Amino acid sequence: MSEEDTPQSRSVEEASSILPGFLARSFLAKFLVALLLISVVIVGVSANTYNQTSNQLTEETRTEYTGVANQSAAQIGEWRESRSDTTRRLSQFEVVRSGTQQERERFLDNESGQLPDDVHNVHLVDFDDNSNITASTDESEIGQNLNTREAPWQTRLGELSYNDDDVFISRAEEALGRSLVSFVTPVETTTGETRYLVVQADLDALAGNLPAPSQDVYSQVVDSEGRIVAGTQDTQALDRNDGSLSVYSDTPDQLTFLQEGLNGTSGFVQGSEVNGTTVPAHGNFAIGFAPVEGEEWIVATHVPLSTAYALRSTITTSLLVLALTAFLGIGFIGIVFGRGATSALDDLTEKANRLEAGNLDVELEVTRRDEFGQLTASFANMRDALRDRIQEAESARKEAEVSRQEALAMTDYLQEKAEDYSEVMQRCANGDLTQRMEIDNENDAMDRIAEEFNEMLGELEKTTGQLKTFSEEVAESSDIVLTNTENVRQSAERVTASVESINTDATDQETRLEELADDMDVVVDRLHSLKGNPHVDINEELEQFENVASVLETATGQTQSIRSEAESAAETSKQQADELDEVSERADRLKRYAKPLGGILDRFETAAEHEFVFSGGPSQPVDNDD
């Protein structure tokens, strides 16, 4: 074996690596670093998941409790409409308008059993008689005066603002431990007197039925003055005093979410965002708020922060536990499996080095069933295969010597044949396309080359002959195209000149018609100034002049249309002339290209029977008749 055939020794130090030296030389170091990177990725993904989950759950909480506030606000708005309709309906009964006092009392007593539970009392009041209650669902109130605490609005009866149903809705007032809202409508009796039907509804009773997703959630209705006009908490929790409603905020104009709600906006605030409230504990709540349509009220739905974000806390805690468990699991894998893999690799590396030194008797015992066992078995198989290959290589060397001698003989034949083929190709390159390669049936590959070359050359000879005739026909056709385009272009120029003349005449005519129309307008205006003169009857003449002015205006419009069409025709003719110039230029270029092509093709020698002839001759020139 020559020195060049001797395999060179390889070392792991020659292997390229982008890793630092201490990592590139140690599997254990790379394994530990990989585990560390995986741990960092897990921590990063967990942190990102924690953040996204926290944000999503926070947004869902905002949406949920803002929705609860909107539902409560809608429920209160429907309640206002319903009680207003009830008030209007009761006032329409004939017994209320024309019945006796006993009939009215009996009617209201019968209706009281059918009214909703939140309706506290229904009174028929005579404000002309010191606010005397003439009939009521509460018999003890009949003959009494309407309490000013329940109805402070009665002192400004003439200033009340009624809705479309002719019903006045008062603001909420505290009375008898209730938040009462009065619905008032005037009733005209048959005797011409005015009575007022007053329906007193308990807003607290409605607030007790507002949506509450959990036990700790409660809603309060707050007005523009910062008063709690209704709430799901009891009276003591609301700290309500006799004769006045509880105060939600002493400075309602500084309560941000109250002002936003009064401006028609729904939203959600929490913690430090709940500012300006009189109740300090509200800082531990999240509040969803929504405006009540038709009133300067908002619904504030309160939920403790611990309740609002309980699900978020549970899920985020689970994520943290999961991330910690994964981190500890990776550490355990690194300690248990990393050291075992490193030990097995070190033992296998030592035996591989002995095989590299030429010791084919090294003991390679398979003691494991995993990948390391498979690798050990592969080394053992490789060792056994090397022994067989050494013996096979010696036999193959002898056979290769015989094959080399045969190859040398074949090389001499191929070299001689290649020289013959080269000579034929050279003559073809010089223009003799009638040459052909000789087929001697000595070598199949060379015979196929000769056959395919001869076939290709036959096609090339035929194509070249056709191109000769084609280039001549192209040159002749180009001359005819040039003549035709020049004749057509001259005709187009004459058309353009005629159209421009028409356009000029139309412009002059339009100018004269406009001047005549202006003069006629002046005459018509003067006749109009005389039309009112009783001594002059010019109506018939004025009508004739107006008809003439209309005809002139129409003629001017038609002249403008003719001029526009003439300008369009002139522009089209110019474009056609430009296009014909471009066609002439292209035909001239084609002619210049066809002549050199014909000169080149004439250098090749071809058989006459391969020349191509057009089925029809070139087009004839077009006569340019005036």
Structural overview:
The chain has 626 residues and is α+β, with helices and mostly antiparallel strands. It is 57% helix and 11% strand. It is built from eleven helices and eleven strands. The chain has helices at residues 21-24, 27-91, 94-98, 101-112, 203-207, 256-262, 305-308, 310-356, 371-429, 444-530, 539-601; strands at 119-126, 132-136, 168-169, 173-175, 178-188, 194-202, 218-223, 228-231, 267-270, 285-291, 297-304. It is flat, with a radius of gyration of 55 Å. The relative contact order is 0.06. Mean pLDDT is 75; it is low at 1-6, 11-16, 234-243 and 614-618.
Features:
alpha+beta, Beta-Lactamase, Helix Hairpins, 3 domains, 6-stranded antiparallel beta sheet, 11% strand, flat
Summarize this, please?
The protein has 626 residues and is α+β, with helices and mostly antiparallel strands.
N-to-C terminal Cα separation, in Å?
Answer: 98 Å
Number of helices: 11
Low-confidence stretches: 1-6, 11-16, 234-243, 614-618
* Class of secondary structure makeup: alpha+beta
CATH-assigned fold name of the largest domain? Beta-Lactamase
Largest sheet: 6 strands, antiparallel
> What's the architecture of the largest domain, going by CATH?
2-Layer Sandwich
- State mean pLDDT (0 to 100 scale): 75
Number of domains: 3
Strand content: 5-15%
